[in-house]
Write a structure and sequence with these properties.
GO terms for molecular function: phosphate transmembrane transporter activity. Part of the binding-protein-dependent transport system for phosphate; probably responsible for the translocation of the substrate across the membrane. Pfam families: BPD_transp_1 (PF00528). With 314 residues, the chain is mostly helical. It has a single domain, classed as MetI-like (MetI-like fold, Orthogonal Bundle). The chain contains eleven helices and two strands; from the N terminus they run H-H-H-H-H-H-H-H-H-E-E-H-H. Strands 1-2 form a two-stranded parallel sheet. It is globular, with a radius of gyration of 25 Å. The protein starts with a helix and ends in an 8-residue tail after the last helix. The relative contact order is 0.14.
């Protein structure tokens, strides 16, 4: 009887606005998947001729496509990792200073400045890195090689121009610091005040309170922010192309003039002069970059899902 009563109960009349909003939401959400699938299909179709072609059909290519793309994959990942290693500690420090140490007026001003840095075009960062940063850091690179040359990363002959993979990493770090800082700042501000006050009431210092309450709560957000910054670093084009003097090499040396190139910069530099199968070859390298970015974001999602115990709902 109860089931029949529920079934007989009249349903609420759905308004026109509700139906329109629901339809737009479904279409918008589906559109993202459609665009992603369209990009993937385009890359696969255009890359297939290069992946199956004989290496002799490529202009100046190595023995195979994988031998050609290998140094660029290495350079892309290596530059992004270096940039992330520089940017994450600085971004977290800035975010913590804004949210827990700086006076209110200073925190607001710094927040505006950080947000504005994210709007600077990448070509401006590239010009700054090539014309200003590289000559400025070259004496420091020479000092590193002279005093810390026994460390493999600082070995080799120092570049006389300062335009090295480390300079690129510094430029990329400056570019992704606003992204990581802005997201981390908002995450830290969402930390429950009761958690912070409880830690302080138990006698913790401000830094101990941050270690016990703020950082554990914001860990999933920090991972997400870092992965967004990593995605920006992996796909950056003009800044790398303007700063770096690239070569198709595998090299962990940070200060030498022989530096590995990135996939995005290689496409930007060679696409205008390419034709025929060489265009497919460049698109195939773009497919590799697409896969790398997808894998990085998938791994980040797994990490975030495993840290759900640190969510604010608990």
């Amino acid at each position: 009887m109860a089931v029949e009563a529920l079934a007989a109960r009249p349903k609420a009349k759905q308004r026109v606005g509700d139906r329109v909003f629901s339809t737009l939401s479904v279409v918008s959400g589906s559109l993202i998947l459609v665009i992603l699938a369209a990009v993937a299909i385009f890359l696969i179709v255009q890359a297939f001729p290069a992946l199956t072609a004989d290496s002799s059909s490529f202009t100046g290519a190595p023995t195979s496509f994988w031998a050609y793309v290998g140094p660029f994959v290495f350079g892309t990942i290596w530059a992004a990792i270096l940039a992330l290693a520089i940017a994450v500690p600085l971004s977290l420090g800035i975010a913590l200073f804004i949210t827990h140490y700086a006076p209110r007026r200073l925190a607001v001003a710094l927040g505006y400045v950080i947000d504005l840095l994210a709007a600077v075009p990448s070509v401006v960062y590239g010009l700054w890195g090539a014309l200003v940063l590289a000559p400025f850091v070259q004496p420091f690179f020479a000092w590193l090689s002279e005093n810390l040359g026994w460390i493999p990363l600082f070995g080799g002959t120092v570049s006389g121009t300062g335009r090295t993979i480390l300079t690129v990493a510094l430029v990329l770090a400056v570019m992704i610091i606003p992204i990581i800082t802005a997201i981390s700042r908002e995450i830290f501000l969402q930390t429950p005040k009761l958690h912070e006050e409880a830690a302080l009431a138990l006698g913790a210092t401000r830094w101990e309170m941050i270690q016990m309450a703020v950082l554990p709560f914001g860990r999933p957000g920090i991972v997400s922010a870092s992965m967004l910054g990593l995605g920006r670093a992996l796909g950056e084009t003009m800044a790398v192309a303007l700063v770096l003097s690239p070569a198709a090499v595998y090299s962990f040396f940070l200060l030498t003039s022989s530096n590995p190139n990135t996939i995005a910069a290689n496409i930007a530099l060679n696409f205008p002069e390419s034709f025929g199968i060489d265009v497919n070859k460049l698109i195939a390298t773009g497919l590799i970059l697409f896969i790398i970015t997808f894998v990085v974001n998938f791994i980040a999602r797994l990490i975030v899902n495993r840290r759900k115990e640190f969510s604010g709902a608990n």
